[in-house]
Amino acid sequence: MSRWIVEAGRWMADAEEDLSAAQNLLASMHYAASCFHSQQAGEKDC
């Protein structure tokens, strides 16, 4: 498998982890941290 495919998969996993963190932080009313992780997820998923 191409190393670029592996790297893309790693980035997608990181984006999903950031999104999950953002959702959990939003549910616990940590809005600033939720915004940060949302933004990070969006940048990695582009």
Note the topology:
Layout: H1 3-27, H2 31-45
How would you describe this structure to a colleague?
It is a single chain. The chain has 46 residues and is mainly α. 87% of the residues lie in helices and 0% in strands. The chain is built from 2 helices and no strands. It has helices at 3-27, 31-45. α1 runs antiparallel to α2 (31-45). The chain is elongated, with a radius of gyration of 12 Å.
Which characteristics define this entry?
46 residues, mainly alpha, 2 helices, elongated
Low-confidence stretches: none
Question: How many strands?
Answer: 0
Gap from first CA to last CA: 22 Å
The DSSP helix count reads: 2
Rounded Rg: 12 Å
Q: Shape from CA axes?
A: elongated
Structural class: mainly alpha
Q: How many domains?
A: 1
In helices, the fraction of residues equals over 70%
Q: Secondary-structure element order, as H and E?
A: HH
- Give the DSSP E fraction (strand runs of 2 or more residues): under 5%
Average the pLDDT over all residues and give the rounded result: 95
For the largest beta-sheet, the strand count, sense and barrel status come to:
none
What's a concise summary of this model?
It is built from two helices and no strands. The protein is mostly helical and 46 residues long.
